[in-house]
Amino acid sequence: MASPATSVREWLDERFPLDDLKALAQKKKVPVHRYSYWYFLGGMTLFLFGVQALTGALLLMYYRPGADEAFESVQFIMTQVQFGWLVRSVHSWSANLLVFMAFAHLFSVLFLRSYRKPRELTWVSGILLLFLMLGFGFSGYLLPWNTLSYFATKVGTEIPAQIPIIGRPVLLFLRGGEDITGSTLTRLYGFHIAILPAVATLLIGVHLALIQWFGMSVPPGVEAEWQARPEGRREIRFFPNFVLRELMAWYVALGLLGALAALFPWSLGVKADPFASAPAGIKPEWYFLSMFQTLKLIPAKLLGMDGEMLGILAFGVVGAAALLLPFLDREQPFNTRRWIPGLACVFLGYMTVMTVYGWMAK
Amino acid sequence: MAALLACSGLMAFAQTKNSCLDCHSNLPQPLGVSAETYSQNIHAQKGLTCAACHGGDASADDPEKAMSRAAGWKGKIEHKQIPELCASCHTDAERMKKYNPSLRVDQFQQYKTSVHGIKWAKGDSKVAVCTDCHGVHDLRAPSDPRSTVHPTNIATTCSHCHADAEYMKPYGIKTDQFANYEQSVHYDAMVVRGDLSAPTCTTCHGNHGATPPGVANVTAVCSNCHVFQAQLFGSSPHEDAFAAMGFPGCVTCHSNHAIKHPTDEMIGTGPKAVCMNCHTEGDAGSVQAEAMHDQLTELAAAITSSDELLGRAERQGMEVNQAKLQAAQARDALLKARVTVHAFRDSELKRDTDAGLAVTRQTHAAGEKAMEEWKFRRVGLGLSVMAIAIALVGLGLYIRNLEQK
User: Fold this and answer.
1) Which of the residues A4, A163, B182, B243 has the least number of beta carbons within 10 Å of its own beta carbon?
2) In this structure, are B322 and B375 located in the same domain?
C-alpha cells in the first residue's frame, strides 16, 4: 500500500503538471564563471519584494489611512500589536534594501552588458520595475504621517510642478488638491497598496518569464573565452543547486533584516502638523538624495532657462536613456568596447557623490 | 477744487521744509545735527521741523530770518524747561490725535508725581527730564528697537544715572540696581531671550511716574504678572506675618533687582533655603518648609528618573512617544506645585505633587516595559541569528554533498 505522501503526489500528478515543471527546472542551467555571484542580486531583489508584500499585508490589518488616524495607527502597531514593531521595522528596512538591491542589480546587468539582444525586453521590464520601486518608496513614505514624511512629500510633489504645462496638473493629481492633506494620504495609500503592487506583480511575472525563456546571460568577455576554450565552460543546474545557493543568500538577507529591525527599529518620529513650519534641513529618502542635491546645486537660471526645470528635464532624459539603453548599444555581442559601462561608471560615481553630499549637507 | 488741492500740497511742502539742517548738519557738536540723525527722529518723520521745539522759521533760507527772535526762535532749550516744552504738545489731546490717536497725554501729569518730577519742581537740575530718557535729536518711537526707551534698552538707559555712584551721591540711594538686574531672571528673559513681556525697570517702578514701590505695594506690583503666586500668598500665613514685621512681601524671599531663577532649594531647611532667614530649626514653620521641600524634590527626582529611562528606551529605538507625552503632565504638575508653594501649606502642595507622582509612576512603568521589550528583542535576535546560521551551515553541507555525488 502506498504511503499517504505518495498518494497525495499521485493525486496531484493527475491534476497538475508537477513533474513537467520539475523537469523544466532541472533542465535549466546556470553558467558558472568569475562573475556568477552577480546572478544572486536579482533573486535577492525578488526576495525583498516578497518580504514587502508579506509585511505590507500584515501592516494593512491595523493601518488606518487618514490625517487623524494614520500616525496613531502606526503608533499602535509599534507599541500594542504583538510583533507589530518587528513587522513595521522589517517593512521599512526591507524597502530601503530593496531599492538598494534593485540599483545594484541594474548596475550589475549594465556592467556585464546582459541587456544585449535578445534580452532587451528583460532590461526594459527591469527598468520599469525600478521606477515602480521608487514609486513604492515615495508613496509609502507619507503613510506614517510624521513631520519628516509630510514635508518631504511636500517638497517632492513640488518638484514635478516645475514642468511646463503638465506640472501643475501633476501636482494636483499627486496631492489630490493644493496642499498635502488627508486626500494626499489616501491617494498615495491607494497607489501604494493597490495600483503599484498590481502593476509590479504583472511586470515581475513578465521579467521572470523572460529570464526563464532566455536563461542567464553570459558576459561577452567570458563568452569569448568559452568559445576559444570550450572545455572551460561550466554550468550548474538551476534546481536544486542554484536555488539552494540563492536560498542561502535569502537567509543571510533575512538575518540582516531581523538584526536591523531589532537593533535599529524604524523611528516613528513626531506626528505631522500642517500648520508648523518645516524642520530645518529637510531631506528626502537616500535614493532621491542625488536628484535632490542636483536640483539644489543647479543655478536658478541656466542657459536662459529655469534651472530647476532644466534639472527635471535632465532626469527625464537619463530615465529615457536608461530605458532605451539596449537599443542604443548596437555593438556585436563579443565586441567589448566599453563606452556604455564607462558612462555607467561615471553616472554611478556621480550618484554616490551627490548622495553623500546631500546626506552631509545642512 | 484742483487749485485748492494744489495749494494745500504746496503748503504742506512749505511746512516740512527744514532749512535749519542746511547749516547745522555741517556744524561741529554740540550744534551739529546730521540730516541722517534727524531723519530717524519720530518728530521729523511726522513732519515736524526743528522750529517745533526751538521756534523760529524753518522755512526761511536766510539764517537771520530763520533764527529771528521775532519769529519766536528760542535757541538752546534749558534742561529745566524741557518737561514743560514737551508737555506743550504732549498734553494736548486734540493735537496728539493727529499724529497718534492711541498716544497718552498724561505723561507730564505722571511726571509731576514721580520722584524725578518732584525734585525737578523743586529746581533740581540733575534729575531726569524727558530728553534724558527719550533722547533729543535722534528721538525714536519706543517701539523702535534702537530707541533708548525700547523695553530691551530701558534698563541701560536708567543705569546711565542710577549706576553712576558719583552722580547719584547727593541722593543717597544705592547704585547697584542695574548690576543686580543683570543677574536676574527678568534680565535673562528680556535681554537674552528677547521676551518683551518680561519686566524691566519701568514695569515695576512706572515710567513717567517713576517711583520706588513702597513696602506695602511690592506684592501688588509683582502680582501684575505673578497672579496666582500673589493670590496664594494672600491666603497664606505669611501675608499677615510679613505685614506685622514690615517685610516687603515677595522681595523678602526673592530680593528685588537680583531676582534669581527660583529653585526647590530655596524652600526647606538647607543652606540655600530662605525660610531659615526667619524660622529656626524645629519650629512649626521649618517642619512645614522641610516637608514642602521633600515633596517638590521627590516629584522632580521622579520626573528626572522617568525622563532618563524613557530617553534611554528611545535611544535604543523603542517607541515611547505616548509615555513622553504623558510625562508632560507630570512636569505640569511640578510647575503647578512650585506655584502652590506660595500658599505655604504642605497639605495643599501634596495634592499637586501626588498628582505628578501618579503620572511618573505610569511613565516609569512604560519606560521599564520598553526596556524589557528591548532586552527581549535582543534575545530574540540572538536566537534568530543562531537558527539562521544553523540553516546556512546545513544548506552549505547539503549543497556540498549534492555536488560531490
Assistant:
1) A4
2) yes
Domain containing residue B242: 216-260
Q: Is A243 on the interface with B (CB under 8 A)?
A: no
Chain B positions touching A86 (Cβ under 8 A) are 377
Domain co-membership, B311 together with B395: yes
| Number of folded domains that form chain B | 3
DSSP state of B194: -
pLDDT recorded at residue B247? 87
Local mean pLDDT, 10-residue blocks, chain B (405 residues)? 38 60 85 86 90 88 86 88 94 91 92 94 93 92 93 94 93 92 94 91 90 73 90 92 88 89 92 92 92 96 97 91 94 96 93 97 96 94 96 95 86
Say if residue B179 is in the same domain as residue B232: no
pLDDT at B211: 82
From the list A75, A240, A270, the residue facing B402 with the nearest CB is A240
Same domain, B328 and B254: no
Instruction: Kindly report the nearest CA distance between residue B362 and chain A, in angstroms.
Output: 15
Contacts of A162 (CB under 8 A, 6+ apart): A306, A308, A309, A312
Grid coordinates given for B67: 533764527
Dump the DSSP string for B220-270.
HHHTTT-HHHHHHHHTSHHHHHHHHHT--THHHHH-STT-PPP-GGGSSSS
Q: List, in order of start, the domains of chain A with CATH numbers.
A: 34-279 (1.20.810.10)
Report field, pTM of the whole predicted structure over 0.80: no
B313 located within any domain: yes
